Amino acid sequence: MLLLLNAVTQTALALTDSTLTTDQLQSVLCVCNVAHRHFAPARTLVVSMPRKSLDVARSRLSDPLPQTDDLQTVSVLLGKLHEGTRWPIELFRPNEFDSADRLVLQQSYILFVWNEGASSLNETLENQLEILKDSSSWNPRGRFLVVVTDSRNETGMLLSAHIFSVLWQVARIVNVVVLIPNQSAYRPLHAMSNTKTSADRLIMYTWFPFKFGVCGEVHDIILLDEWVFENNVTFLHNADLYPAKVPNNFMGCPIKVGTVGIDPYVIMTDNFTQNDGRTVYKMTGLSVEIIKYVCENLNLTYVFLAPSVNIELDSYSKTLTELDEGISEVVTGIIPLSPVVLVSYFEATIPYIPFRFKTIVPCPNLFLELKRY
User: Fold this and answer.
1) What's the fold here for domain 2-235?
2) How far is CA 272 from the centre of its chain?
3) Which end of the chain has less neighbouring CB within 10 Å, N or C?
4) What pLDDT was estimated at residue 68?
5) What is the pLDDT of residue 32?
6) What distance in Å separates the CA atoms of residue 330 and residue 328, rounded to the nearest whole number?
7) In this predicted model, what pLDDT tens digit does every residue of 280-294 receive, in sequence order?
């Protein structure tokens, strides 16, 4: 699924700058500038393309890519990024199964999206994310750059909102910039100045999930910067494309908490049904009080889901499934730090109250078993 580019040279690329249109070449230059300015050197950089890029996924690096506009752009970009070997680059290949175990989290992502037949750009992006999530190196807290090669008739502001919604719903990704060719004569509401834009530029959008009085809902899209083609090609505002997105004060935003465990770690003290039919659970216990303390200091409103007040396998399966599906946003209680299940798919804090379980089983009598044969 991922191919590590450790020995690629510029001569191995069948495509060159001269094969690109002006717009395509400017997209490559802009992405390279973003990468050099904002992506950590010597840390893995993942370049991802849509699921149905079968010809790319099955070809060798020395083979020419199919002669389509989008794939030509990706091909030249890979060559530019590899110059100077600033990063280990992983080319995401979503049509192959990757069984390799990687222990180092990826830090930077460039996701290309374009229409695949009947699939929309949103579906194209969601397909990539769902497969990327299966990697043990997946890092939703890394820096993401989504490159839209064709926005069709949809405004950049509206298309960006759809992309931000997909990223948030699938993996709670917030450190993201969407790069879209300009198709609008005017800037959006929260632009950094009031001057008109021309067609010969690329627009960079972002959003803040806990700002403007909202809690994780995509409403206000921010125009961060623009890459202009004329004169000395450069960023118009030279803005910080990845500002801090997580505040110290969440202004009372709700957070859904799942719990699993037994007394004295997880204790349900009461539950009742509200007028709207929702059941409210009141919880306490050593593990629960820790999450309460964190929420109170960050001004988060905790909402407890139905607890699993035992440590059976079904309880863990149900609780972790709810976390994976976004029904809950955090889980506390007696959590086994299993590298196969927990650490590979979820982020765990350091144990606040560590303890160990030991299972005692009868030792088989090997001598008697061997004597039978």
Assistant:
1) Rossmann fold (3.40.50)
2) 37
3) C
4) 63
5) 92
6) 6
7) 999 999 999 999 999
* Euclidean distance between CA atoms 306 and 313, whole angstroms: 17
Regarding beta strands 176-181 and 201-206, do their DSSP bridges make them parallel or antiparallel, or are they unpaired? Answer: antiparallel
Contacts for 130-136 with beta carbons within 8 Å, 24 or more apart?
Answer: 130/170, 131/1, 131/51, 131/92, 131/94, 132/46, 132/48, 132/92, 133/170, 133/171, 134/1, 134/98, 135/1, 135/2, 135/98, 135/102, 135/106, 136/101, 136/102, 136/103, 136/344
Helices (H), ranges, 183-233 = none
Q: What is the mean pLDDT of residues 337-347?
A: 71
8 A C-beta contact, residue 66 and residue 56: yes
DSSP structure class, residue 116: B
Burial class (CB in 10 A: 0-12, 13-18, 19+), 159: buried
Query: For residue 236, which of 294, 173, 279, 193 has the smallest C-alpha distance?
Result: 193
Q: Where are the domains of the chain?
A: 2-235, 254-345
- In this predicted structure, the answer to whether residue 185 has a pLDDT above a threshold of 90 is no
Common-topology check for domains 2-235 and 254-345: no
CATH of 254-345, one of 3.40.190.10, 1.20.200.10, 3.40.50.2300, 3.10.560.10: 3.40.190.10
- Of 143, 3, 158, 28, nearest in space to 83 by CA: 28
Tokens describing residue 176: 């993201």
Q: Helix or strand or coil: residue 10?
A: helix
Looking at this protein, which amino acid is placed at residue 253?
C
Q: Is 27 left (phi over 0), alpha (psi -120 to 50) or beta?
A: alpha
Give the span between the Cα atoms of 154 and 152, in whole angstroms.
Answer: 6
